[in-house]
Structures are given as structure tokens and as C-alpha cells.
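Lecture 7, part 2: worked example. A protein chain together with NDP.
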Amino acid sequence: MARKILTTSSGAPVVDDQNSVTAGPRGPLLIQDWQLIEKLAHFNRERIPERIVHAKGSGAHGTFTLTRDLSDYTIADHLNGKGKQTEVFARFSTVGGEMGSADAERDPRGFAVKLYTRQGNHDIVGNNTPVFFLRDPSKFPDFIHTQKRNPVTNCKDPEAMWDFWSLNPQSIHQVTILFSERGVPATYRHMNGYSSHTYSMWNKKGERFWVKWHFKTRQGIQCLTQAESRRVCGVDPDHAQRDLVEAIESGNHPRWTVNLQIMAEVEAESYHIHPFDLTKVWPHGDYPLLDIGVLELNRNVENYFAETEQAAFSPSNLVPGIGVSPDKMLQARLFAYQDAHRYRIGANYNDLPVNYPRSAQPANYQRGGVMAGTRCPFGNGNNLSGSAEVNYGPNSNDGPVEHSAFKEPPMPFAAGVIDRHDHRPEADDYTQAGALFRLMNADQKQQLADNIAGSLAGTSKPVRERMLSQFDQCDPEYGRMVKEALAIR
Ligand code: NDP
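Predicted complex, written out as C-alpha cells:
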């Protein structure tokens, strides 16, 4: 087959891509060399701002298969009809590191799934941990600053990290998970995923349920020890990316069993655990897992930048039958994720093929903005941004109209007062972290204590003492083991 002719981005054939235009063989260059200028200018713009968090990630396409009809709980189209399949795009990531950081760092892992349903995209933007460090979003930027680089030294700063945690006991549950055996998953295939937040669902009778999502790996949990993680970070910083690509390429498609925990709306009022507190799980003994489907990843991306880097997940990508909960962290993320994509990619980020609601038919009155006019190449619906069609509603021109069938049932709200309510003293921060510690075997407990001591050892005495007090309150054995591990450092 004849090779394609090299062209500029405007399609003009390129005659010479080896030599710049110069006045004489020794130069200087001439500004009339528009081919060179276009090439250098595009190269300068090859990067978009990396995500503030979850910058380094790996993505793949696949399917979600519903194995249990959920019409008792939700009108969501993709959750109605046993056996229904929905296309998905998933992205896994580390959190604190930059785009070039190592995959094997001790860090939570992002676990984001975009389901291209017939009623729009439904995103579940979770982590490999069922809880988070915080329950109030006002502390998120502060917390992330402690995970990033010191503003003066530009180095990672364990003192800042532990100082923050020692002053925020609400983080102890997630800290315990992070420094446990599971704190460094062996690969993205060998970890669970969790919505972490409580979401809601509603059915055709208008009944609401509170729901947590769990994705249980079918590859089995596999982890790296601290020593293994250090070695892999040095030897192959991209090991998890490589593993995912190679597994899918060889037909070894990773799968997760999808489970839900479901709570009737009214039970939230009397449940002894605050059901919208992101630092807490619902114990399985109270709310057992309901097996509802299988997530499979079976197709690698063809263009890492276009797909994985530009993938724009948002907890606000919801569809009829799926709603939010009052979880304060979730409420802030509903704003923050879309805002980040507008900054990172531009106002029309949903026009890009990876984000386009390919199984739905987007139709609205949004117009203009950067890169308006894209027609996403799936052939089942045109994005109207920038087209000549009517751009206001109501109108007499047959433009799109609302549909009341998808109305969410009203959510009761017990009258209270508007204030900056103190989120700190209300909750028991130690019980669930202690429960996690107690379910570990002797070796796992020792790994936890050693991993903590390795990181905490270089911090100041007041920080160490505050942390030891926290471990002690989770479980006296936990406190004692960390103290002993610190003593031999
Ligand atoms: P269960 O014994 O019913 O469940 C324990 C859960 O802990 C399992 O889901 C297990 O995952 C998971 N697990 C085991 N080791 C670790 C670890 N090092 N890091 C993170 N998760 C781990 O207990 P409960 O439901 O009563 O919960 C007890 C504690 O287990 C909680 O306080 C919480 O810390 C932790 N946990 C609870 C979850 C929940 O949704 N209830 C979810 C995850 C953790 P697997 O089954 O895959 O082995």
C-alpha cells in the first residue's frame, strides 16, 4: 500500500520535513518557514494542565453486565433488565504524584468508571478504599497540599503529612488502610474499588434508597510490601500501566464483581453510624453486599492522550434513577470535578469522543466555547454547539424540551439552621479503624506498624506523640506495636 503523504495540520503536502528554511546553508532561519513554526508551536502546546490530584493514570474500555435486575430500587435504564450490557471506560490512578511519578507509590488508587448509558453518562468516581481522610471539603486543598511537595524545598514532606493527620483524627481510618498491607496494590487489576460516597437511587414508585458501590476484584487481592514497592518504583515506574495494557492485549481481561449496599431512605435517620460520613463504612453485618453485575475491561485505548488523559469523570454525571446524598464531600465534588475539566480541557470537554454520551442523544441550548462545533464520530447524535439551530428555550422551533417522567422524588429535609456546623466532634473516629486493625492477622498488623514507623520516624516529637495517642485509641495493641516499631528505627 502506498504510504500517506505527510501534510501540515491544514492538510497541505510537506515537501521537506528534514531541513528548515534558512538564508544560506549556515542560517539564520527565516520566519517565513511556516511549516517549522507550526511544528514548534504545536509541540509547545502538547500538554494540558495535569490533574491536581490523580495525575498519573491508566485507562481501558470495557463492559458492565447487569446480572440482577434492579427495577425494585431504581428506574436507571442500565440497571433495569438482567443481562443488559453497557459500554464503559475506566481509569485507575495514583493520587498525589505527578504525571511522571511511579505507579507503585504508597497512595490511594483512583477507581473511576464511566458507563455510557442510554440516558446519559453515569460516572462512579471512587477509590480503592471505602472511606476517605476527610468529611468536610473545606479541608481538601489543605490536605492535598500535605501530600504534594513542600512549597520551599519542592520535596515530599512527611512532617506536613503527619502534622495534618495528627491534628485531624477523622483521617485515622483511611491512614490505617493506606499503611496496611493493601496500601500498595500489586497492580490496578488486583484491587477493589468503592464509590466510597453514599449515593441514592429511586424507583418508579418514588421510593428512595441510599446506596454504596463496591467493585470486588476477581483477580484476587495482591499487594506489594514496602520493600517491594520501593524496588518496583525504581525498576519500573510504569509497572501498573504496563500490566493493564499487557493483560488486556493478551486476552486476560480483568473483571470485578459489582456489589451494592442498600439502605432504605428512612433507616438513615436512626442508623447508629452517620450514613453520609465519608470516613465511615457500613459494616457488612448491617448491610450485606448485593451482587448486581460484572465489570470487564477488554479493550486498550488507541491514543493514551486523547482517551485516558482527556477522560473527564465527574460524580455529577448522574442519570435518571440515580441521585446524590447529603455527604458534604460528595456535594463539593459535584462542583469541583466539572470545574477542573473546564479548566483542564475546556468548556466543551463532553464533545470529546471519550466523554461524549455515545449511547444517548445530547440536545441542549449550550453554544460556543473553545472547540465548539465538534461532531463526535459516533454517528448517533450531533453536538449542536455552534450550529445555526435555535439556541434558546422555550422556542417555537421544535427545539428540545424537558421530560417530567425523570423527576426525582422530593427529598425530605428536617428543618435546621444554616451555619458552619462543626463536623469534628460529632463522630467516633477510632472504632472502625480499630475494627480494621483487629481483622488483620499477626503479619498484617506487623506490616502496618512497620510501614507507619518507616514514614513517621522522621517527624517531630509532638507529631509522633499525637499520632501514637490516636493509634492507642483505635486499639491499645495498635498503639503499642507502632511505638515498638518506632523504637527500633
Ligand atoms: P467484614 O469482615 O464484613 O469486612 C471486612 C472488609 O475489610 C472486607 O471487605 C475486606 O475486603 C476488607 N479488608 C480487609 N483488609 C483490608 C485492608 N487492609 N484495607 C482495606 N480493607 C480491608 O467487616 P465489616 O464490614 O464489619 O468492616 C470492618 C472493617 O473492615 C471496617 O471498619 C473497615 O475498616 C474495613 N472495610 C469494610 C468495608 C465495608 O464496606 N464494610 C469495606 C472495606 C473495608 P475483601 O472482602 O475484599 O477481602
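The radius of gyration is 25 Å. Residues 378-386 have pLDDT under 50 and may be disordered. Keep this in mind for problem set question 3.
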